[in-house]
Design a protein that fits this description.
Order of helices and strands: EHEEEEHEHEEEH
Number of helices: 4
Strand content: 15-25%
Radius of gyration: 19 Å
Length: 201
Amino acid sequence: MTAFRKTTPVALTTDAAPFAIRAERASDVVAREALLDACFGANRHTRTCQRLRDGRAPAEGLALSVVRQGRLVGTVRLWHVSAGGAPALMLGPLAVEASCRSLGVGAALMEHALDLAKARGHGAVILLGDAPYYARFGFSPLKTGELALPGPFERDRLLGLELRAGALDDAWGMIVPTGMAARRPRTKLTGKARRLVTHAA
């Protein structure tokens, strides 16, 4: 049985307007990190899936923000991985501000991200999450049973979705990161620090 993507109509409630889903910007980073801390706690950097993101850049065009009245209230990013040799994307973390969670924002963000991933030619998406929630988007454990993560995880929470038929056929082994290295922020050097760097070169 193949876990094809099922298109599920998702509607924002009338209370949700006006929301905008757009590409993440550099100016979103501080608010994004604060939102992730609020949703997942201070220990989120120690979680298993973080090993697939450390030092990596998200997949091109697949880092998204939800903005309401000029304020970031949602975020999701997808990352290049190899799922036992099969190219795929790892989704997460997906986070929505507590005051907006009942408005359909998370579902709309999820649908938008998956539609973008498919339009960009990606074949499969994997995530670690609650099966009852993600089943409505077509995710299931049908083709992830032979896959593993680089750390402890709950087997029934490792879910996959094929955006292209057969993309996860025979997927087996460790899920490993394959994305580009993240760019380090440039530090502006002045005075003595600039002279030291010049002399060291």
